[in-house]
């Protein structure tokens, strides 16, 4: 029985290791800026009130635990589509989009990866440098080659758009897949501007490549509608597209694993064909999606009172994060730090590339119990009124 003797333990995800290190740190002043979940000012990740109310309704009315079917509940698909594209979208009206429920945005990406690997032979996936760490793992695990395009410029804390475009123009081949973040770019917090989406839409059409848009943070940037402006512009003007979306963040239902995968094709007929193949990929993966999270979302979306409450709660979460960005910039400046951190205010979403060096990050960790990823990515939601002064003073001491 020597089957596993040759196996060597692998290091875990560095971000998860950071969370554990923070948990074990006895310092009462410790701050966790690693974890990618929303937190309130008390450092809790609360269940939204709209979700609690929806769950009470569900418990009362749930009649069965039978399987939902491969695609999840049929009535859930239009809800995904309207949220992403807006209810007056031509793509929806023409029947050119099909959507399935998935276990979180990660489940959607995994199904997309399997679909691309099996059906778009030789397609390579182009991702931003940097991108969410799991993108590369997911596509590699499906046998898809992943290539990085230039994106983030640490000198300007902005998008290197000219470099990005010239790289893509030189490297993209017909049938390749271009992954874009809809909003709240993870991990940098630096988003594409609408004119960038215009240029990329032209490029996609010229080159005949497939855009795959990851919409994990709708509502966390500038608003539920505003955050989708670039995605909507592109979706209405390209022949085909894949969209992976997550409800983890905007409904705060992380552990209930609820997301969606949508396919847009040139005709309604083509969309149906592609969707049937996506169904096969799902069947061979997790067979059926879980019901709970999707039922929560559906219950809220179909109840005007709960919907209004939910919109209000998303606004509160977004305003808190954007408010923290402004406060950070203000307090860092007041702390007499030598570096200009004003770019933090312009970034969007839960994450910020802070511009801190590896050495500075490690000193913050060892000497001040402040946990930030090695890349300098910090989760803004981990900042609170009670720790912001200590955080800014510590950064000022380390940066000088």
Overview of the molecule:
The chain is α/β, with parallel strands linked by helices and 400 residues long. The protein is built from 15 helices and 13 strands. The strands form four sheets. The protein has a seven-stranded mixed beta sheet, with helices on both faces. A two-stranded parallel sheet has the order 1-12. Strands 5-6 form a two-stranded antiparallel ribbon. α9 (229-235) links the parallel β8 (210-215) and β9. The radius of gyration is 22 Å and the shape is globular. The model has no long low-confidence stretch (mean pLDDT 96).
Helix-strand layout with pairing:
Blueprint: H1 14-24, E1 31-32, H2 49-61, H3 76-85, H4 90-93, E2 97-102, H5 104-119, E3 125-129, H6 133-141, E4 146-150, E5 152-153, E6 158-159, H7 161-171, E7 177-181, H8 194-207, E8 210-215, H9 229-235, E9 241-246, E10 259-264, H10 268-283, H11 292-301, H12 304-334, H13 343-346, E11 351-353, H14 358-368, E12 370-371, E13 377-379, H15 388-399
Parallel strand pairs: 1-12, 3-4, 3-7, 7-8, 8-9
Antiparallel strand pairs: 2-10, 5-6, 9-10, 11-13
Helix pairs in contact: 2-11, 2-12, 5-6, 5-10, 8-9, 12-15, 14-15
């Amino acid at each position: 029985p020597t089957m596993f003797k040759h196996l060597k333990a692998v290091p875990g995800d560095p971000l998860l290791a950071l969370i554990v290190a923070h948990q074990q740190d006895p310092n009462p002043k410790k701050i966790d800026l690693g974890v990618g979940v929303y937190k309130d000012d008390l450092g809790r990740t609360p269940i939204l009130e709209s979700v609690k109310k929806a769950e009470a309704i569900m418990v009362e009315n749930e009649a069965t635990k039978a399987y939902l079917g491969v695609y999840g509940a049929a009535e859930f698909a239009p809800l995904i589509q309207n949220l992403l594209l807006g209810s007056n979208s031509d793509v929806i009206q023409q029947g050119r989009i099909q959507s399935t429920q998935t276990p979180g945005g990660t489940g959607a990406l995994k199904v997309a990866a399997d679909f691309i690997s099996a059906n778009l032979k030789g397609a390579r996936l182009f991702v931003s440098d940097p991108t969410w760490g799991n993108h590369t793992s997911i596509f590699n695990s499906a046998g898809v080659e992943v290539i990085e395009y230039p994106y983030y410029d640490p000198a300007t804390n902005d998008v290197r758009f000219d470099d990005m475009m010239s790289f893509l123009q030189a490297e993209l081949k017909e049938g390749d897949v271009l992954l874009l973040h809809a909003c709240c770019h993870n991990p940098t917090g630096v988003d594409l501007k609408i004119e960038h989406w215009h240029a990329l839409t032209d490029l996609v059409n010229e080159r005949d490549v497939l855009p795959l848009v990851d919409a994990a943070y709708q509502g966390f940037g500038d608003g539920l509608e505003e955050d989708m402006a670039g995605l909507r512009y592109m979706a209405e003007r390209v022949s085909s597209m894949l969209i992976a979306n997550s409800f983890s963040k905007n409904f705060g239902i992380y552990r209930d694993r609820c997301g969606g995968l949508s396919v847009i094709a040139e005709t309604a007929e083509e969309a149906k064909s592609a969707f049937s193949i996506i169904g096969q990929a799902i069947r061979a993966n997790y067979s059926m999606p879980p019901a709970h999270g999707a039922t929560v979302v559906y219950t809220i979306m179909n109840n005007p009172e709960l919907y209004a409450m939910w919109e209000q709660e998303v606004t509160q979460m977004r305003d808190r994060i954007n408010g923290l960005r402004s406060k950070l910039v203000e307090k860092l400046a007041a702390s007499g730090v030598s570096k200009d951190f004003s770019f933090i205010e312009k970034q969007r979403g839960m994450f910020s590339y802070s511009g801190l060096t590896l050495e500075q990050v490690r000193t913050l960790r060892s000497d001040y119990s402040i946990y930030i990823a090695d890349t300098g990515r910090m989760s803004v939601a981990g900042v609170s009124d009670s720790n912001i002064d200590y955080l800014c003073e510590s950064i000022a001491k380390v940066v000088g």
